[in-house]
Amino acid sequence: MKAVAALAARLPGPSLSDVCVLCAFAANLSLLATPAFADRPWHGSVGAGTTLLLTGDRGDRNRYELEVDVEPASRFGALLAWRGFDHDHHGLACAGLVYEAGAARPRIVVDLHGDIGVDLDQRAPLLGGGIRTTIAVVGPLGVALDSGAYLVIDGVESTRLALAAGAMLVARW
C-alpha cells in the first residue's frame, strides 16, 4: 500500500490543458444527453371505409365506418366515429380518446383509442377500444387498418361484445 502511495506521489498532476480538454468533453457529453422535444403541431385524420364485424348477426358482417380524430399539439386527442352501419343497421356512435402510441411521421402512425357511445339499434350504451395503424400512400392520403372490441351493455341477456376489423381511406394532416 505504501508503495502505491509513493508511486502516486511521484506522478505529475494534470496540467491546465488536460483539465480544459476534460471539461470540454464533459460539456459536449451533457449536450448529447439532453432530451429531444419534437415540435408537435395539431394533427389528425378523417377517414371512411368498410369494417368486418367478426361477431355480426345473421351473416351480415360487412358494414361501413366513418371516423375523425384530432390531436392538438400532443400525443393525446379526441375522436368521433360512426362504426358498423349499413342500410339495415344504424351502427355504433362513439366518442373517445386517442393516444399516438408510435409514429414514423409522416408515413406510419399507430394510435390506440378508447371509446364510449351508444348502439343506435339497441339504444344501449357501449364502451370499447382498439388499435389503428395508418400508412401514408400519397401525400396526406393513406390507408388505416383498425381493429376494435366494443361491449354493448343491454341488460343481462342482451349484452354483447362486438369485434371489428376494418380498412379505411384516410386523409392525415
Walk me through this protein's architecture.
With about 170 residues, the chain is of the alpha+beta class. The protein has 2 domains: about 1-30, no CATH class; about 45-170, Porin (Beta Barrel), CATH 2.40.160.20. Helix content is about 15%, strand content about 55%. It is built from 3 helices and 8 strands, in the order ααβββββββαβ. It has helices at about 1-10, 15-30, 155-160, and strands spanning about 45-55, 60-70, 75-85, 90-105, 110-120, 125-140, 140-150, 160-170. It has an 8-stranded antiparallel barrel with strand order 1-2-3-4-5-6-7-8. Strand 5 (about 110-120) and strand 6 (about 125-140) form a beta hairpin. The protein starts with a helix and ends with a strand. The mean pLDDT is about 85.
Count helical runs. 3
Whole-number total of structural domains: 2
Q: What CATH architecture label of the largest domain applies?
A: Beta Barrel
Widest β-sheet, arrangement of strands: 1-2-3-4-5-6-7-8
In this structure, how is the largest beta sheet organized? 8 strands, antiparallel, barrel
The proportion of residues forming helix, as a percent range, comes to 10-25%
Task: Give the radius of gyration.
Answer: 28 Å
* Terminal Cα span: 69 Å
Provide the succession of SSEs: HHEEEEEEEHE
Uncertain runs: none
CATH class of the largest domain: Mainly Beta
CATH topology of the largest domain: Porin
Overall strand count: 8
Strand percentage:
over 45%
Provide mean pLDDT, rounded: 84
Query: What is the global morphology?
Result: elongated
